[in-house]
Amino acid sequence: MPEGDTVWQAARRLHDALAGTVLTRSDLRVPRFATADLTGRTVLDVTPRGKHLLTRIEGGLTLHSHLRMDGSWKVYGNGQRWSGGPGHQIRAILGNPDRTAVGYRLPVLELLRTTDEPRAVGHLGPDLLGPDWDPDRALANILQDPARELGEALLDQRNLAGVGNVYKSEICFLLGVTPWLPAGDLPPDRAAKLPALAKKLLEANRDRPIRSTTGRRGQDLFVYGRAPRPCLRCRTAIRVADQGDGSRERPTYWCPTCQPGPAPTPTRRSHTN
């Protein structure tokens, strides 16, 4: 699943390829906007907002997309073979004389007035990689429902924008608590560290091709995707179980020694990063 750092990287690639150029190709392959033609308009910028991408275009228009689980934007040079998936998975094509951006498997794609962007992203909490980052507000949002499991509160983009399943598991490990701990039971000293820790992790990885939370080459993550291998700190077997209401698969990893506290029975299935 793309998280805030990977979406930030996607926005930078799209911005570098398209911003300041006039579109010579435009194809939105979703029924509602299939007849929209953006050719002849200049791309002004591509901005990430949490896990959302906002491509702003001359004339007061914004192409809003969200990658969710499987979506991606690929950028190709002239004559380069497109390799992001079969043609029927393409949802958007934006091109200029030098580069073509192709959106694959985009579950959310809509063209809206730039002034209407708050309708698409106004519900989001402070963006860990954005200019609106506010650590005090982010922590207050997380703690406003003290009975809610911390892992679920971290994933709620209304609290803070950019944390996904990987960072949820890694943040909880680094705080020394399980993702099933009620947010209100988070010790005050660890709660105070949470916003800065989350921001540090995403900022450190927004320019990296391979995400790392450990600083160790070849051992990039502390817990996520590592069950049942030994914990890098204490050698206890890492465990995995789903968290949430079951509406989507959310494998959650933890070390039962380094992260004492409430936890479900671990699942037998193995997840990889």
TrEMBL record:
Organism encoding this protein: Streptomyces massasporeus
CDD domains registered for this protein in UniProt: AcNei2_N
PANTHER family given in the database record: ENDONUCLEASE 8
Pfam families assigned to the protein according to its UniProt record, in alphabetical order: Fapy_DNA_glyco, H2TH
Residue segments, region Disordered: 243-273
Family that this chain belongs to: Belongs to the FPG family.
Boundaries of every FPG-type domain copy: 222-260
E.C. number(s) listed in UniProt: 4.2.99.18
Protein name in UniProt: DNA-(apurinic or apyrimidinic site) lyase
Domain Formamidopyrimidine-DNA glycosylase catalytic intervals: 2-79
Alphabetic keyword roster: DNA damage, DNA repair, DNA-binding, Glycosidase, Hydrolase, Lyase, Metal-binding, Multifunctional enzyme, Zinc, Zinc-finger
PROSITE patterns: FPG_CAT, ZF_FPG_2
Record-linked InterPro entries: FPG_cat, FPG_N, H2TH_FPG, Nei2_N, Ribosomal_uS13-like_H2TH, Znf_DNA_glyclase/AP_lyase
Top-tier EC class: lyase
Domain of life: Bacteria
